[in-house]
Amino acid sequence: MAATKTPAKAARTTAAKTATRMTQAQIVSDLAAKCDLSKTVAKDFLDNLSALAVKEVKKNGVFIVPGIGRLVKDSRKARLGRNPATGETIKIPAKRVVKFRVAKACKDAIVPPRKPRS
What we know:
It is built from 4 helices and 5 strands, in the order αααβββββα.
């Protein structure tokens, strides 16, 4: 028997599908307009910021974008997992991952904290 979605869950799924994300070209255009730059300079800025982020995370393990968040290199320990198809226990090796941690100011601006109940 197939699981049915609740109306609230269906609305969230529909909203997520209809929401549009900014493309790189749109970000470049917006940045160029707001900073009074040419699109070429704005694109070069974004490309250099990305390259700097990669370089710094490789070298120091962290790259901070003030007001937005930080890219952090982290290590995951080896662990035991389960193959969902067979139920067999498998070993998942240790590995390094990159995480993005959103700054508190950015998070609070996007999703305001709940007010405590009285």
